Each structure stands twice: as structure tokens, then as C-alpha cells.
Amino acid sequence: MIKSNGKLALYVYDGVTQYNYDGNGANTLTTNTWYYLTFVYGNSVLQGYVN
Asked: Is the pTM of this model over 0.85?
């Protein structure tokens, strides 16, 4: 999901725990543009990468 400020948000639920990614980087996403998104989870942290 892209929030109103152009940052990416992701919510993942594994049946027990909900993990949240609330984008806070310098870049913002715009409509009609392709992006490569990757998310990794480790050490109780969900991280997201754009391009």
C-alpha cells in the first residue's frame, strides 16, 4: 500500500503475529511508475527495499 505521503506500508500476518513495515526512507513512490520491491525478515525486523 502507498500511504498519502508517498511512503510504502506493508502488513504481514503469519497466523500468530502481525509484522508491519512503515516506510520512512528519503524516497517517495509515485503512481504510474514501476518499482522493484523486496522485503526481508530477520532478527524480529521486517525491512523493505525499493529498486
From this structure: no
CB 49 within 8 A of CB 41: no
Residue type, 27: N
Query: Which of 36, 29, 9 has its CA nearest to residue 21?
Result: 9
Report the pLDDT averaged over residues 5-34: 83
Q: Give residue limits of the domains in the chain.
A: 9-50
**Per DSSP, what are the bridge partners of residue 39?**
48
Q: What share of the chain is helix, strand, coil (3-state, %, to 5)?
A: 0, 45, 55
Helix (H, G, I), strand (E, B) or coil at 44: coil
For residues 37 and 50, give the distance between their C-alpha atoms in angstroms, rounded to a whole number: 5
Q: Give the model's confidence band at 34: pLDDT under 50 very low, under 70 low, under 90 confident, else very high.
A: very high
